[in-house]
Amino acid sequence: MARFRPGLVPTLVVIMLLPGLLWLGFWQLERGDQKRALLERQEARQQAEPIGPEQVEQIDNPAYVRVQLQGSFDAEHSFLLDSRTRDGQVGVELLQPFQDQPSGRWVMVNRGWLPWPDRRIPPVFDTPDLPLKVTAWVYAPSGKPFVLNRRPAEGWPRLLNHVDVNELWAVLQRDGLGYEVRLEPGSGAYRVDWPVTTMLPQQHVGYAVQWFALAAALIALFVYFGLHQAKGDRHDRHESDRRAP
């Protein structure tokens, strides 16, 4: 112990910071594993055959399940999800009720992203007149977003800050599927390149490496300071012994 004297303050700093740095590193690794499992589940479900909307609510976790719809959109009631960006452009996502003829169920379909460069002019979109056969996938968010103003605007098309499908059905006074479904490329779709996740597993691993590197640097500095301090103390004692009569 005479060769290692870090001192009280550096020891307290390490005790306070090191557990946090290690926790952040392991947390990022855990998040990476979760994102990897999410991507694998999404890929597997995207390869599966689509099901009818009446089967969706029988599944405990229907996220990314493909759905086959045959029917028509309700052109009179459209919702615009505000503040969506693509390639640096501001726009909206267009959601419209769709009545599936085989099941008779109403489904809230997200038709994709539209640019909205001039907010003085309503976004331009059209609704197919003829019945369509389309494929979509279930979007189930992991949690509710924080929204300051939860009240939608009046009139049609109606501007939204967030999507709560059950609230939209209440506005329309209809009983519909409790999940938003997002169109795959094809008939009736606009820009539908939604990212599955905002951060890839590799990015989480990269952040974990950074946190572990900071922890290692903290330990290295602690050891260096302790050895350097002990060396200084031994030098001072040696000088004192030489000056002693």
Automatic annotation (TrEMBL):
- UniProt-recorded name of the protein: SURF1-like protein
Q: Which residues cross the membrane?
A: 7-27, 208-227
Compartments, as annotated in UniProt:
Cell membrane; Membrane
**What are the entry keywords?**
Cell membrane, Membrane, Transmembrane, Transmembrane helix
Task: Report membrane topology.
Answer: Multi-pass membrane protein
Species of origin reads Stutzerimonas azotifigens
Coiled-coil segments: none
Q: Where is the signal peptide?
A: none
Q: Note the InterPro entries from the entry.
A: Surf1/Shy1 (IPR002994), Surf1/Surf4 (IPR045214)
Homology family = Belongs to the SURF1 family.
Can the keyword Transmembrane be found in this entry's annotation? Answer: yes
